[in-house]
């Protein structure tokens, strides 16, 4: 690798030996702090020069055309959401995208049987503009939508008159608009936002999130109805109850705890439901009762019921058990409880009083729920007073799909199961268990083609997250589908810090216990080698966001365990992360550098401060999203410069900047496909994987497509007796 490093034309980078800071009496040098000024010509020159080297490697990988074709086949498919019923005469809205579309569009059917009309088509916007959310008014005559530029954060609300197709002049107060819910009469809406510039001291613009109410056509600024006057780190979300009597208001301490209140819309009286910030809650109004999902006094979750007359007096109806209760929702007069059973989902159906009725059998091992800004959102949806039950489902080998569920016949019927050219029956998804450094048992999913021999040299892509109470569950992506077609193996470790096994599992790897997550991940890599799947040289470590921190730390702590590392949108300077935007809120997860104990612990693993010259680190690609509002986009720049200067034994170390991209990637499907092709090209180059030739690719694609069609047809017969 030393010879390879010397052969690559990495540019010389200015090092400022005087730059640094002192923390708790210890001096930390920061020789590349100047790169934090992203718009400076010197920084832009560094990015361009590094990108040129990276492109020279990735663009020269044999088989990139095959990789692009494979990713495109699994990325470009027709998408269709369940309908959003609203307004009189059966008016409904839905999300749709054809295979050639770059972005999802919002469509409307004016009445039952009427043709679909396009309401919002972001494909006609600039490439870097994203439609982040769109919410129809209760009568279906208006749509409030959020548009962002260069990513999916920082949305601005606009209001469209559906009948005329014109935008209203309304410009709601604040910045970074989200979590919108209309008043039942359509006269206005509630939404979350950060303050407008000038409303808070300079530097606090990303804080003091609150709920505002905007009245359509009003020249008066939106009024602030809910928030916190003392803790600027909290953020808020809002929903309006199905009955239209209440707004359900939540205030969050990141993802660790929240408080919930009801705003009675008839008189604006605020009613506390969960007033103490020490546990997590989701609240739904069903009839004259409140359905409350909580982990208060139940680390794996329980469900409670309360009267609207006494909303803080809860009665448990679904007690805590060995599985983690992720969500419970009331639909069609019944309760649908989604449990995380060993990192995949099971759905139990209960009567309103909690009595168990039956299990809703899913098509395969997979996921129903999804993580969003306001916590975990149930994949079971519908109205409490309605008769439609919608179930979302996906797996490692099946894309996000939607089903109708009929309770009377106990039948799950496909509504939209996309064809992505992958035959699920051709792949095996196995769950294995291994021991971490302290003896803790950790689960991991391993996915590969059924006919792939375990010869000890299979190329493996290992991933994990391990933070913020987020569960790593079976998810489909085009890049993982292409990796499977390439003959690769996927491994997903459910390490501590995530939410797979409840609050205790999450809290086992926060603050000064973060090493547990790192140990769990390193043990996963070593298990895959010991069990004959692969060798360290053929094992790629991939992490995004908090997972990016994970793969960077473990590459430095156990470099011999990995052959390559793909580190996307990470935070790498753990001693200065709170100064970036709202990242100061993340101290509840990582700990605070200002605390003497937590600061010393952070210094012990902060990747930027723990580069050693005497270790042979694996080849690493660092991937910053230059429009990132979540993680500091300059951290990967600083890290690459430091590694290239201070560790010549290992590497090489590449910078792959994502331009016009936010934390979640590009705003068009083409951009996302190209980012996936780059990722796969890196694995092929680093692990010595040769993509299939074009003829073999065409044959494999045809076979997979035929298998996928057969699987989609078979899915029409899925029911409680026939599901596997």
Automatic annotation (TrEMBL):
The Peptidase S9 prolyl oligopeptidase catalytic domain covers 475-688
Top-level EC class as recorded in UniProt: hydrolase
EC assignment: the record states: 3.4.21.26
Q: Which PROSITE patterns match?
A: PRO_ENDOPEP_SER (PS00708)
The reaction(s) this protein catalyses: Hydrolysis of Pro-|-Xaa >> Ala-|-Xaa in oligopeptides
Q: Which residues does the UniProt record annotate as the domain Peptidase S9A N-terminal?
A: 11-416
Region (Disordered): which ranges?
1-20
Q: Looking at the keywords, is Protease present?
A: yes
Which keywords annotate this record?
Answer: Hydrolase, Protease, Serine protease
Question: Record's family?
Answer: Belongs to the peptidase S9A family.
According to UniProt, the name of this protein is prolyl oligopeptidase
Question: Whose protein is this, by species?
Answer: Polyangium sorediatum
What's the source species' lineage?
Answer: Bacteria, Pseudomonadati, Myxococcota, Polyangia, Polyangiales
């Amino acid at each position: 690798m030393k010879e390879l490093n010397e052969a690559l034309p990495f540019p010389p980078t200015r090092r400022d030996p005087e730059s640094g800071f002192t923390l708790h009496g210890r001096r930390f040098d920061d020789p590349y702090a100047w790169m934090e000024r992203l718009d400076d010509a010197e920084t832009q020159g560094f990015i361009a020069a590094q990108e040129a080297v990276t492109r020279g490697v990735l663009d020269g990988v044999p088989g990139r055309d095959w990789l692009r074709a494979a990713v495109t086949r699994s990325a470009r498919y027709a998408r269709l959401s369940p309908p959003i019923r609203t307004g009189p005469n059966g008016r409904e809205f839905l999300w749709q995208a054809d295979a050639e579309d770059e972005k999802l569009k919002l469509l409307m059917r004016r009445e039952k049987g009427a043709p679909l009309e396009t309401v919002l088509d972001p494909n006609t916007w600039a490439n870097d503009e994203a439609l982040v959310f769109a919410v129809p008014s209760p009568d279906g005559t208006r749509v409030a939508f959020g548009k962002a530029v260069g990513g999916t954060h920082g949305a601005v609300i606009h209001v469209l008159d559906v009948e005329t197709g014109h935008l209203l002049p309304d410009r709601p107060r604040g910045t970074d608009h989200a979590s919108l819910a209309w008043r039942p009469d359509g006269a206005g809406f509630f939404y979350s936002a950060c303050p407008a510039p000038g409303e808070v001291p300079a530097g606090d613009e990303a804080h003091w999130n609150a709920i505002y109410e905007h009245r359509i056509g009003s020249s008066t600024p939106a009024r602030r109805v809910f928030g916190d006057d003392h803790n600027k780190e909290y953020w808020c979300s809002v929903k309006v109850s199905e009955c239209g009597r209440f707004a359900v208001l939540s205030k969050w301490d990141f993802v660790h705890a929240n408080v919930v209140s009801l705003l009675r819309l008839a008189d604006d009286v605020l009613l506390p439901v969960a007033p103490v910030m020490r546990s997590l809650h989701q609240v739904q109004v069903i009839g004259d009762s409140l359905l409350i999902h909580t982990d208060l006094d139940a680390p794996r979750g329980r469900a409670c019921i309360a009267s609207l007359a006494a909303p803080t007096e809860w009665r448990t109806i679904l007690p805590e058990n060995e599985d983690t209760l992720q969500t419970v929702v009331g639909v069609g007069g019944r309760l649908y409880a989604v449990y995380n059973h060993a990192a995949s989902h099971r759905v139990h159906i209960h009567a309103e009083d909690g009595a168990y009725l039956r299990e809703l059998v899913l098509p395969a091992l997979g996921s129903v729920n999804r993580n969003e800004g306001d916590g975990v959102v149930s994949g079971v949806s519908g109205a409490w007073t309605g008769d439609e039950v919608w179930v979302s489902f996906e797996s490692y080998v099946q894309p996000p799909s939607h089903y109708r569920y009929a309770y009377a016949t106990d039948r799950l019927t496909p509504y939209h199961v996309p064809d992505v050219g992958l035959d699920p029956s051709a792949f095996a998804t196995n769950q294995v268990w291994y021991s971490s450094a302290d003896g803790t048992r950790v689960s991991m999913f391993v996915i590969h083609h059924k006919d792939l021999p375990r010869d000890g040299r299979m190329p493996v892509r290992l991933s994990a997250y391990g933070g913020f109470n987020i569960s790593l569950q079976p998810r489909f992506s085009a890049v993982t589908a292409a990796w499977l077609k390439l003959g690769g193996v996927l491994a997903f470790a459910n390490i501590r810090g995530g939410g797979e096994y409840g609050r205790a599992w999450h809290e086992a790897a926060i603050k000064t216990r973060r090493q547990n997550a790192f140990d769990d991940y390193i043990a996963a890599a070593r298990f895959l080698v010991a069990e004959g799947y692969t060798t360290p040289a053929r094992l790629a470590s991939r992490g995004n966001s908090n997972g990016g921190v994970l793969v960077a730390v473990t590459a430095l702590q156990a470099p011999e365990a990995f052959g390559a590392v793909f580190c996307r949108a990470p935070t790498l300077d753990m001693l200065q992360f709170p100064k970036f935007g709202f990242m100061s809120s993340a101290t509840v997860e990582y700990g605070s550098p200002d605390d003497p104990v937590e600061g010393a612990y952070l210094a012990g693993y902060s990747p930027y401060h723990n580069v050693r010259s005497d270790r042979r680190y694996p080849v690493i690609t660092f991937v910053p999203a230059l429009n990132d509002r979540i993680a500091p986009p300059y951290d990967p720049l600083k890290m690459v410069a430091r590694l290239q200067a201070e560790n010549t034994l290992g590497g090489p170390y590449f910078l792959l900047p994502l331009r016009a991209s936010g934390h979640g990637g590009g705003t068009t499907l083409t951009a996302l496909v190209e980012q996936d092709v780059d990722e796969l090209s890196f694995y092929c180059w680093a692990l010595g994987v040769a993509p299939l030739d074009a003829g073999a690719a065409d044959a494999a694609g045809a076979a997979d497509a035929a298998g996928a069609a057969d699987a989609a047809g078979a899915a029409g017969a899925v029911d409680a007796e026939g599901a596997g």
